[in-house]
Design the sequence.
């Protein structure tokens, strides 16, 4: 498939799923009336449902999908390891910790972007720890072990913070922060997380050329005149901004950054730079599709998006471990 | 004792007479050190216990958000409902709800403490029953019966003029998008205040989760949400959702309070609050 | 024209001087073999020259900006790494990165350079194949083609023929010699003394971070030098195909 054809098909898929996401919900509205209400409606219940409930959910799904797909592709390109996924290596977990701390201490209410920035700060710590422990020359084994350790620590601290909260609901929300969900998110969440995610995408896109060159290893990359230091900086900040902002409004949705790059890699001839935009578009489609599925499968139960992603992603993860098991021996 | 005069059925009078005699005998061995470990039994016990009889209530009884008798509870030592701290109070009777940790209750019973369980009251008749049950448990049968009778009379008075106003439709909306149906205490409070519950229209007599968009499409005349707790929770985030504010613009908005939590005569205040 | 000039280069690791006051110059049209036993400092010397390591002393390449340096010298590390299953042409085209503005795709002259590098290494038949599915020797040639596509006056290669079969060792050495004849220069760390002697225009023998000898193969591979540095006996001898250097036995 040529890059142009791939780009077109992924875009068509994304637009289709975006519309489907707008049209599917418990209220069971007609297609025509929904779209009219979305665009032209004012103040009647139908317009409220379309503009204030379904539209933000669809937009957020797409933004978060782009962020997670992009972050996964970038981490994998940099570490040259197809198992590097923000959720698995503890970046999402540390972002969730940052967000939970901000919410429970009240920092989140102190200024407009405090919540996503706290998620970002948590994620920066997660990414730095991973790069330090499993750096570019680390094996898959080191990467996964470091990821388990960081996830466990971040998860435990998140649970601790929520347990200490005076709010009786907080404790039961550990699962939301660990699994993630888009249910009942509003336009304010889009405005909160969207700008930070966009900045993160911009930073990640600066790493594209270097990620391609890194196919040949670090020495060869430096000798091609590319700066690894700059790349590392953009990668850490870009991934942290994307994953941090996404996690701070929707919880830690895992496996998107694993499944999507894995599916896209053969379609882009495994080229890391092309994989970035392909995973961005694919990630958006994946999250929208999963979010549609949770609404169709168990509409009354608030099935967590992350649960569904894990059901799809974990078997693939096992498969990838099986494939790379020689490296583990 | 006006209630007994009003209900002059001879069978009842006979039964009451028998009970009074029995009660008089029972007074002698009424429990002397009573500990309550459940928010709702706390309140029933504080209403009916003799001075000095109730030695401790649960710590929740002092929480204004959930306890309608928080001020009174300040006068009692509080417990956290753990078998150990309850046992050290040397109670001869422990009052619990039927949802109290089974392990705690089993442990207390093994230690030889008498435990009286009170099931959750979901309608007004059950509230009267719980008052009588509490009276019996505390060896203050007559107090309990009198309180129950007074409550029944008050409810009858309220319900007589509730029917006409049922045209107004209200939605109960709590954290996590939960709503209560007609078969719940909140549902009965709503009905007694003369409001129709949209949960019933939507086929949820026991309540359950109500999607935000279903709520918007139902277009209630009144929106009753829960008070928020301190600290943040995503569960309560939904009560800040922009669309809920928009719904509230065209509907009366009210919040539930401690009077809604337990099946006690305080539900009458909840009903009166709604009527205003 | 000087392509590489090192003056008093010193690299230390801890207290040890891995490269100790090395000076050398390489002009155009030279195929220089960098020889020496394991641990002599061959790799370190080249990486220091490329500014991949901190070092003392002056080096013309280190004074260039990274983007200029990438057009002055190509580097073929010993570690043959192709991390993703990309096709051969894609790998070779990575050599064009120094000439492409960010985000631009290959232009005609880039494609010509890639095609040229591919044919120089005899990889035409492999161009569309997935690089990671090729044999080790084929991958090595793909990576050499990648370095050639960078189209620089100087190529530095770290043991480029290790692991190749005899035919491809010869053809690779010949390709480097051809580059030198075209006016470019190659500096390659080599372990195969006979091949080095046969194809290189000049050898630099280093031991313990110092230059022991520098000059034409016959002047460097003297019996004393070879015995002292490598601990083997070797000599130039007449063979059916001309004079060749042969390693005969270990020095007792």
Sequence:
């Amino acid at each position: 498939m040529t890059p142009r054809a791939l780009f077109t098909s992924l875009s068509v898929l994304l637009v289709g799923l975006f519309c489907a996401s707008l049209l599917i919900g418990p209220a069971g509205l007609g297609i025509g009336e929904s779209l009219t209400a979305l665009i032209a409606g004012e103040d009647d219940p139908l317009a409220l449902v379309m503009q204030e409930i379904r539209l933000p959910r669809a937009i957020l799904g797409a933004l978060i999908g782009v962020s997670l797909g992009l972050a996964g592709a970038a981490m994998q390109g940099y570490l040259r390891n197809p198992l590097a996924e923000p959720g698995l290596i503890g970046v999402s977990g540390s972002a969730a910790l940052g967000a939970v701390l901000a919410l429970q201490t009240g920092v989140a209410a102190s200024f407009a972007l405090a919540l996503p920035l706290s998620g970002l700060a948590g994620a920066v710590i997660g990414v730095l720890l991973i790069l330090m422990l499993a750096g570019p020359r680390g094996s898959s084994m080191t990467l996964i072990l470091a990821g388990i350790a960081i996830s466990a620590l971040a998860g435990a601290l998140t649970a601790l913070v929520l347990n200490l909260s005076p709010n009786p609901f907080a404790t039961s929300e550990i699962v939301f922060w660990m699994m993630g969900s888009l249910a009942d998110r509003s336009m304010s969440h889009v405005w909160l997380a969207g700008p930070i995610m966009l900045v993160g995408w911009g930073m990640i896109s600066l790493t594209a050329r270097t990620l391609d060159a890194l196919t040949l290893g670090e020495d060869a990359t430096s000798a091609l005149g590319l700066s690894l230091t700059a790349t590392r900086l953009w990668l850490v900040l870009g991934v942290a901004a994307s994953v941090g902002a996404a996690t701070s409004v929707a919880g830690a949705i895992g496996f998107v950054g694993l499944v999507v790059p894995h599916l896209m890699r053969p379609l882009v001839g495994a080229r890391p730079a092309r994989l970035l935009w392909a995973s961005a578009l694919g990630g958006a489609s994946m999250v929208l599709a999963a979010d549609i599925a949770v609404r169709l499968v168990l509409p009354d139960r608030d099935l967590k998006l992350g649960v569904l992603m894990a059901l799809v992603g974990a078997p693939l993860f096992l498969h990838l471990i099986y494939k790379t098991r020689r490296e583990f021996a | 004792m006006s209630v007994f005069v009003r209900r002059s059925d001879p069978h009842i009078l006979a039964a009451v007479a028998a009970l009074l005699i029995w009660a008089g005998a029972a007074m002698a061995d009424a429990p002397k050190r009573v500990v309550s470990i459940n928010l709702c039994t706390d309140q029933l016990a504080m209403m009916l216990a003799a001075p000095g009889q109730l030695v401790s209530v649960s710590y929740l009884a002092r929480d204004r958000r959930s306890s309608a008798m928080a001020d009174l509870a300040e006068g009692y030592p509080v417990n956290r409902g753990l078998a150990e701290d309850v046992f050290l109070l040397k109670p001869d009777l422990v009052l619990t709800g039927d949802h109290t940790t089974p392990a705690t209750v089993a442990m207390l019973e093994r230690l030889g403490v008498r435990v009286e369980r009170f099931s959750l009251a979901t309608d007004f008749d059950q509230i009267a029953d719980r008052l009588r049950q509490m009276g019996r448990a505390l060896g203050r049968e007559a107090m309990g019966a009198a309180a129950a009778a007074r409550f029944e009379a008050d409810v009858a008075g309220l319900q007589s003029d509730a029917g006409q106003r049922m045209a107004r439709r209200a939605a109960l909306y709590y954290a996590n998008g939960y709503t209560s149906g007609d078969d719940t205490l909140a549902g009965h409070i709503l009905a007694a205040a003369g409001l129709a519950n949209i949960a019933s229209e939507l086929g949820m007599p026991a309540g359950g989760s109500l999607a935000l968009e279903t709520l918007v499409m139902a277009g209630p005349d009144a929106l009753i949400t829960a008070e928020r707790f301190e600290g943040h929770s995503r569960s309560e985030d939904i009560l800040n959702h922009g669309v809920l504010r928009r719904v509230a613009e065209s509907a009366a908005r009210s919040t539930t309070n401690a009077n809604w939590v337990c099946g006690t005569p305080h539900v009458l205040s909840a009903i009166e609050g709604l009527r205003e | 024209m000087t392509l590489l000039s090192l003056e008093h280069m010193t690299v230390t690791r801890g207290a040890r001087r891995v490269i100790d006051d090395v000076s050398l110059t390489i002009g155009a049209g030279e195929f220089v073999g960098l020889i020496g036993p394991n641990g002599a400092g061959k790799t370190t010397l080249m990486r220091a020259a490329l500014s991949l390591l901190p070092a003392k002393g002056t080096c013309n390449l280190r004074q260039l900006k990274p983007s200029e340096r990438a057009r002055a010298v190509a580097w073929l590390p010993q570690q043959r790494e192709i991390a993703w299953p990309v096709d051969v042409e894609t790998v070779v085209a990575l050599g064009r990165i120094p000439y492409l503005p960010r985000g631009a795709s290959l232009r005609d002259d880039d494609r010509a350079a890639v095609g040229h590098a591919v044919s120089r290494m005899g990889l035409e038949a492999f161009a569309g194949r997935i690089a990671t599915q090729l044999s080790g020797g084929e991958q090595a040639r793909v990576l050499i083609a990648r370095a050639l596509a960078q189209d620089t006056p100087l190529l530095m290669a770290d043991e480029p023929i290790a692991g190749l079969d005899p035919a491809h060792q010869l053809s690779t050495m010949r390709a480097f010699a051809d580059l030198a004849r075209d006016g470019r220069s190659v500096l390659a760390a080599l372990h195969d003394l006979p091949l080095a002697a046969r194809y290189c225009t000049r050898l630099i023998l280093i031991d313990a971070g110092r230059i022991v000898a520098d000059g034409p193969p016959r002047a460097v591979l003297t019996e004393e030098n070879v015995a002292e540095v490598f601990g083997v006996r070797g000599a130039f001898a007449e063979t059916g195909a001309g004079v060749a250097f042969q390693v005969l036995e270990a020095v007792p």
